[in-house]
Amino acid sequence: xxxxxxxxxxxxxxxxxxxxxxxxxxxxxxxxxxxxxxxxxxxxxxxxxxxxxxxxxxxxxxxxxxxxxxxxxxxxxxxxxxxxxxxxxxxxxxxxxxxxxxxxxxxxxxxxxxxxxxxxxxxxxxxxxxxxxxxxxxxxxxxxxxxxxxxxx
Length: 153
Prior knowledge:
Elements: H1 6-13, E1 17-19, E2 32-39, E3 47-54, H2 57-62, H3 67-72, H4 79-86, E4 91-99, H5 107-126, H6 143-152
Parallel strand pairs: 1-4
Antiparallel strand pairs: 2-3, 2-4
């Protein structure tokens, strides 16, 4: 059965967006942590711009609100990923950073294992001054409120 996902078809036509081919397999979705990296003319090194987790990295990329779909429609919340849509000098790499398998011993423990793996990779890249526009899920304080608190200390 052929995959008819239009975002996957669009991605296949792009010469500057590269995805781990394991992610493309709709019939065997990978559960785990993924990273989105960018390389442009100014900075020849790949830089991490986003780390995420999902029980199906395929769905997280190709569903209607997935990363590839958002790039295709110029609606990604990371502006350089929208720019890469038109500028072939900006290269995007989408990679599986870690596969995480549910143990199915306890729902909350499995969710925590997935979240912990994601946090590990976010910490790793943030320690290299990459992936800096991410905050933990459920963060309640806004950036403006944080800036105001910072001024007081």
